[in-house]
Amino acid sequence: MARKTAIITGSTSGIGLAVAERFAADGFAVVINSYSDGEEDHAIARDLAARHDTDVAYVQADMSKPDQCRRLVAEAAERFGGIDVLVNNAGIQHVAPIEDFPTAKWDAIIAINLSSAFHTIAAAVPLMKKAGSGRIINVASAHGLVASPYKSAYVAAKHGIMGLTKTVALELATSGVTCNAICPGYVLTRLVESQIPDQMKTHGMDRETVIKEVMLDRQPTSEFATVEQIAATAAFLASDAAVQITGTHISVDGGWTAA
Ligand code: NAD
């Protein structure tokens, strides 16, 4: 039987890499992606393929560029004969007060965190509809549901992807294709590490105080979520058990958005 295929955008580190690892472990053929085209990117694919005895390809595509988003889907489908799961994960962050927020950062965050999902979904849907099945999983955020100061672009993009998720789910409701979001709270990845210096500056705090009082203060469990927990949630949404789950989200945020 042919392997099912999963594409994960932005998957050379953090949550995306853990999701790729999980789908490889579950026997999927996996397409991993980032914007660079270094030897280390291809080495990640080779390593996953060898450890999980499956097919893994690295496809370079910059998720800030509409044509490259669409090319990623086309290349994946051509290589593995179809797309069963599309995980829109690529994302960046910038932290600054609204009046100082650089326009170029706003544009990049909207392009990578929101518009890329529009383009990959638009390219994948005809293939999924034809197959009569498919799973679209958007890695949103607790910031898709609630806001925090100094993250105007990120919060706007993540709220946007929640709307996109619901709209696509309704359009595809009778097609066998589901579309859902995962809303992580804080997960200690490169993206979060890189916010700590800015948060220290903005709040006038040291590293430990930012982690405790700005980040984990929002999570009632006082613990980071892990990349493996986000990957397991994606695997569940891709499973047969989740076939009637569409147009919604699963929060993995230690209770953040319950408050
Ligand atoms: P990360 O920085 O470790 O990973 C981001 C990935 O996206 C990397 O592989 C990077 O190469 C890739 N990427 C960045 N720009 C790209 C571009 N232009 N084209 C293609 N790929 C690009 O960060 P992460 O924490 O693993 O974040 C992954 C997703 O999870 C993001 O959408 C983020 O908003 C979301 N998220 C993260 C957290 C958290 O606390 N870490 C919480 C909620 C949501």
Which characteristics define this entry?
259 residues; seven-stranded parallel beta sheet; 7 strands; globular; binds nicotinamide-adenine-dinucleotide
Description:
With 259 residues, the chain is of the alpha/beta class. The chain has a single domain (5-186, 225-258), classed as NAD(P)-binding Rossmann-like Domain (Rossmann fold, 3-Layer(aba) Sandwich), CATH 3.40.50. Helices cover 47% and strands 14% of the residues. It is built from nine helices and seven strands. The protein has helices at 14-25, 39-52, 66-80, 103-131, 152-171, 190-193, 195-203, 207-215, 227-237; strands at residues 5-8, 29-34, 56-60, 85-88, 134-139, 177-184, 249-252. The protein has a seven-stranded parallel sheet with strand order 3-2-1-4-5-6-7, sandwiched between helices. Strand 2 (29-34), helix 2 (39-52) and strand 3 (56-60) form a beta-alpha-beta unit. The radius of gyration is 18 Å and the shape is globular. The structure holds nicotinamide-adenine-dinucleotide.
